[in-house]
Amino acid sequence: MKVNKVIILGSGALKIGEAGEFDYSGSQAIKALKEERIKTVLVNPNIATVQTSKGLADKVYFLPVTPYFVEKIIKKEKPDGILLSFGGQTALNCGVELYKKGVLKKNNVKVLGTPVESIIATEDREIFVKKLDEVGLLTPKSKAVKAVSDALKTAKKIGYPVMIRSAYALGGLGSGVVKDEKHMKDAVSKALSASPQILVEEYLGGWKEVEYEVVRDRADNCITVCNMENFDPLGIHTGESIVVAPSQTLNNHEYHKLRKISINAIRHLGIVGECNIQYALDPDSDEYRIIEVNARLSRSSALASKATGYPLAFVAAKLALGKLLTQIKNSITKKTMACFEPALDYVVVKIPRWDLKKFKGVSKRIGSGMKSVGEVMSIGRKFEEALQKAIRMLGIGAIGLVANGNYSFKNLDEELKRPTDERVFAVARAIEKGYSVDKIFDMTKIDKWFLYKIKNIVELKKEINGKNLGYIKKELMIDLKQKGFSDEQISVLANSTEENVRKKRNIYKIHPVVKQIDTLAAEYPAKTNYLYLTFNGNEDDVKFDNRKSVAVLGGGPYRIGSSVEFDWCCVSSVLTAKKVGYKTIMINFNPETVSTDYDICDRLYFDELSFESVYEINRKEKPNGFIISMGGQIPNNLALPMEKEGINVLGTSPKSIDNAEDRYKFSKLLDELEIDQPEWKELKSLTEAKSFAKKVGYPVLIRPSYVLSGSAMNVASDEEDLVNYLKQASDVSKKHPVVITKFLLGAKEIEIDAVAKNGELLAYAISEHIENAGVHSGDATLVFPPQKTYLETIRRIKTITKQLTRKLKITGPFNIQFLAKNNEIKIIELNLRASRSFPFVSKILKLDMIELATKAILNEKVHKAKKSIFEIDYVGVKMSQFSFTRLAGADPITGVEMASTGEVGCFGDDVEEAYLKSLISTGVKLPEKNILVSISGDENRYEIIDSIKKLKEQGFDIFATQNTHNFYNMYGIKTKKLHKIHEKKEPNILTYMKKGKIELVISIPRLNLKDEAKSDTYLIRRLAADYSIHIVNNIQLIKILTDSLTNKNMEDLEILNWDDY
Amino acid sequence: MKKTRLILEDGTSYEGYSFGSKQSTSGEVVFNTGMVGYPESLTDPSYKGQILILTYPLIGNYGVPKNDFDKHGIDKNFESDKIHVSGLIISDYSKEQSHWKCEKSLSKWMEEEGVPGIYGIDTRALTKKIREKGVMLGKIVVDKDVKLYDPNQKNLVSTVSCPKKIVYNHGKKLKILLVDCGVKNHIIWNFVKRDVTVIRVPWDHNFLDEDYDGLFISNGPGDPKMCKETIANIKQALKKKKPVWGICLGNQLLALASGADTYKLKYGHRAQNQPCIDVGTNRCYITSQNHGFAVDEKKLKKDWKPWFRNANDGTNEGIRHKTKPFFSVQFHPEAMPGPKDTEFLFDKFLEVVKEHKK
Q1: Reduced to 3 states, what is the DSSP secondary structure of residue A994?
Q2: What is the ipTM of this complex?
Q3: Of residues B40, B311, B312, nearest to A252 (C-beta)
Q4: What is the pTM of this model?
Q5: Residue B35 is part of a domain; what is its CATH number?
Q6: pLDDT 10s digits, A527-582
Q7: Enclosing domain of residue B337
Q8: Is B140 in the same domain as B57?
Q9: How many CB atoms lie within 10 A of CB B92?
Q10: Residues B266, B187: one domain?
């Protein structure tokens, strides 16, 4: 089998259930193919990824991963092979459809790796169950149904509670446990709207959940690379579970029985490459069930790769090309080969990162559907150590499993029985309160082994709680550190300071050691640079040299506001530093990233991004300095403490960073420089705040310092709001000031991403938001180069930027956000670090601004960029991806706090073309016939009257709610009235949406969102999210959408690759 | 928490805490990288005289099960009737355990069996040392100091072999003569499960006059060259042309009987993830292993050829006669602990035996 050119499908925007892991797997696949000298064509609209960077794929198409576009690309590129398993469910679904339509066959494109028949056998439950039954393997009792009545009958036969699952859905969308017939009807019709077929099956709640990652080659060599056990028993999606690797509570019989079954199943299914198999294992007998097989790289396989050091995606790509496991080298040891099963000599803990606080109205319960937006992975040599590290890594304000002020449970029993994202804290709390392990087990079904370990942590806490530092003798200190207590955590418990605990530790000479991840538990010498810190050891695995070196701090967990874009910045920065001759050190702990790939840097510390670990790594490695401006807010916040301890922070000085991050200092600075900003006031007292708000007039914006993604940022429209929000803000930003500013209505928002060296501006990119100010910049749609911004505005932005660059003596990347209204511009914020739009503007501009920034930071020779936005004759649009469908109850609306989980960026000859490509890339189907319009307020209705008219002229049928209907008919625009849901009269919105008759919802809420939660417009929006109907609720977006739909059709969306622009 | 020391022959000393028996012990220190299966490993007779390091740091998690004898009296939960390792070295001991099959804690079991353990050791650093310097003698000193003891000076097989003949599964069509050099329970179990009679005889038993259809030479501890009597008997058996199969020590004994040689590996193979290639093919099997000696492939006689080879270090993992039904493997097809990918070799051997009987 010889292929010369291969097309690789990416996964598009990051969304809940499909996140950064596919940037890792796709990048690895491209590298594997390049090594075989195969030409690579990548389709992925996710512009923030590493895989879509220069130097990887030969050609990149920033286009939607849909059959329509991929077919066109195939016709143009004429590849002879296609890889479907590296871009998540999105790529797999697209591939299966292309196969079923005969597109692949017609164009002589071979599916590499697992054949499509095998993929279908794993995706279609009926075939799947039948296939496994053929070789005597057990699956849960279940039946696939296509109608509600069938589902009810089946459920009765199996007996409630039952589990429902939808086929072809990522991250368990539409899955759930149903307790009785009443709920069944509802759940089934929802699930059937998202998927043509659903599954009703026996409920195995309380069983252990175990996974294996399996690799097989065409010669039938088959190995399991890693097994993993869920801390949370079955019933909670594996993406929502705490996961440990390897399994901890399985004995030899169970471990190897399930391993053997995995191999039998995968052989029988005919998978070639990598796959994941999930089991339910009865905690009281030898019974097991196979839950599912994912015939592609997955979140679990990314985790397994990082947990073991075995490059699953790389190997899978080689196997897809027909190589054998015996012909591939183990890239970690460089001595042994890929046909082996890693032996771990450490334990890995993964914890999901939720961001539920960002959504109004969402239920905090976790269950069989995914809600988490990212994850962290920690490595230790005790479970207690790994668990506490992982909890800190989450970045949710917890300093470990215990000693956190902010977890209290009104109803602990309820919390244990019906878990939320805070379950693990509830377990610790219960032990503290004296619940027995048996009792907690009965309520949670979490294996007692895990509970005993948590008990160990709680007991150690009790030992030092309320004591003082003098009480902690050397042996106790060792015990604390070995069980994962951080200096800060100890200081809180023992009434001390982090600094004093560290000093004490230094006196005792208690420091972590550096251990390698070598895949073979030290059996063979390994060249690996994959490292972690542990207090459970007395010898470093590696030596430290005096080479010129630099450390880059990574971005931490993917969460709302900080995701793959910062990883792109980190990777670009590390690669640049390497290129200019530095030994590079990377610190990060997110298993979904490329920055944590062993082949990116010279030394990877897969460990915490805390002051303590940075201090310890600095102590050992003594790098020339740390780059903290690439990983977003986490490293940025370390600037001051690092400087205080004498650790060399490279780039813009920590003092300048503080001047920008501290809202009070920054506003004062702007006043000093006479740069305009919205009227502002530092919060000193509530009375002052109230009178300020009264003076400038509501709405006002409340802004805490040192936060990313607008956490606790809120628009208060009256005094009641103001009081509430101020409390939230001061909770989030305890150590730093909170500022109140006038919230400008109807202003345009403009951003500049720039690079400077020693106060001199080197390069910049100005982009404009389509939405007016008020939508968080991370949610807004960006246009670059700006199309509607006046030249004069651009000139003034540049002047102000230069002024600030000089004043703060900026070196490195930075971003400023401006408001423009009536020819005035005002600054809203300055971030002295890379921003989330850096990859977007870098790729549109075809100038890697991070490379330039890194060179500036490292004091290399740099030149001012010659490229300017005026030379670009095309347009890029960056659009956000929302995941509201997965967040039951959440109001799908944008505001000053960020809510999107990912983004895409597409090119076009004009803004409309780029806009439509981006829109389709976020999974939106363009409407063909029926649009629902529901607008609050005549002002808003009037504002978009032209848009509605245009849509009508285009032949769309417009449905509207009572008032909207009356309004437009008054203006002679014929709309069809639909009754509101609560009216319970037909024709009703609910029926139309359920039946799939509405393809697009245009809905403008009132500005004051306080009562929105219960309103009818909320219900409409929520239903739209539940039934995956695209919803537009911003006036500027409605305008551009209608203009685009009016002026363009699919044929106008050109199939061009990056180099074509 | 009782402090305990581990002292190696090169003088290095490690401090840890005691679990299991409080007696001091001495032996050859070796490591195993398997992540599960301590009840099976500890009762494997091939570990006789050795102090075992488990590189996986969290041990004791699922406790120890009770005995589970099948109808032939073979205990399915353990590989023999007692713990054979002299001591156990680990990083983190789970004092509390959880498993539906658990009867007692690992510490209690070791205490009952008089085997000491030490935890709190940087087992990775220790393993690296052994990897670099080779296996060495060591001792766990709990209370009274003991002398360093070198088990390799002794015929260990004689201490773990059965004292007299035992027959399992009487009266079946096929009869396998099993030379017990320290056989693991699951080897016997794998035969009887396949409905054959197993005649288990002591290591030095002259079996040539026994009535059997196929000869099996078991695993066992120590230097194969200590088993002079067994080698002599196998030499005779090779003249009889009845099928012969060996596992682990059995592989080495067959090699020695065929005129080849064996040598001691620097630190052996003790793991559940050893890749072995079926020589001349693309097939690679993941195997369970526990051996310190290996067959020197270069010294194979011309009628013999290598069968399996270790993909990591190229050492021999099995040999076979070019024309006659004699073959053996260095790894453990019966697993326990470990992967069962090569269990089919039992079928293969019995097919050959059956074929040959016709």
Answers
A1: helix
A2: 0.98
A3: B40
A4: 0.95
A5: 3.50.30.20
A6: 889 999 999 999 999 999 999 999 999 999 999 999 999 999 999 999 999 999 99
A7: 157-357
A8: yes
A9: 26
A10: yes
